Amino acid sequence: MASLADDGLAEFVSRPGPSIGEIEVEALRAQSAERARGRAPGPALDTVADLDVAGRPARFYRPAPGPLPLVLYLHGGGWTIGSLDTFDRVCRRLAAGSATAVLALDYRLAPEHPWPASVDDTVGALEWVARRPPALDPVTGRVAVVGDSAGGTLAALACLRLRSERPAALPDLQILLYPNTDLTGSSPSMRENATGFGLTADDVRTFARYWVPDETRWADPGVSPLHAPDLTGLPPALVVTAEYDPLRDEGEAYARRLAEAGVEVELRREPGLIHNFLLLDELSPASAAVADHVAAELHDRLHR
User: Fold this and answer.
1) Residue 283 belongs to a domain with what CATH number?
2) pTM (two decimals)
């Protein structure tokens, strides 16, 4: 076994289980919901309210009264699983740790709604936020888009679309946590970390097929942000990868390309961690510490 950050992660990755492709989508979603119900509730906040955001359900978390910056949060789950409930603890911890309002978007899921539905929903949500509707009062100041895993893909793609179509709606910051930026799966980490660390390379490809069934499109710039020919004019970025993640290298390659395009970017690889560390805070102190670090960085960047 590689040198994982702590015993909690070692125990987690040692649990046997079928591959994603061997489980029906509805069963995957049921398992995800069941795991969420087994987690401790997140911290109590000043306000938690369900909203309609550009025609999609969303949940608004306010850690304290008064004007606050805002995070649009996009959950992971291979564009196929995940919901407002399964990421409720993550969003509560992020809001409390960053002293920032968090708006979690329930974007449409594949395979019922393949690409580009979830990208369209993300773009629509960022445009809605840019209008500062009354439902967000008194949110003021800076806006960040934060996405983990598949949500990181959506955040990156939405920023690319808005840069070209409506730059006034671009967020001030993009935070991409272990994102999938290249559906072709051609990076070395897809081979080095293919099995043994929770998410497998086969799982990654199965989720990609649910979202974009036509594999000939996996290298399209509108699907894989790493293949976008021009990354200039995008918001400053923080990209966080995990050492033992099959998606590690494509996330890091995207950060390097952002920097080459003149975008302010910070890249950080978290040693000893695996994919989905935001959801592993209860069993892994190292994962919890990194999630807290991300929240603290959000605070510093949005409140300054």
Assistant:
1) 3.40.50.1820
2) 0.97
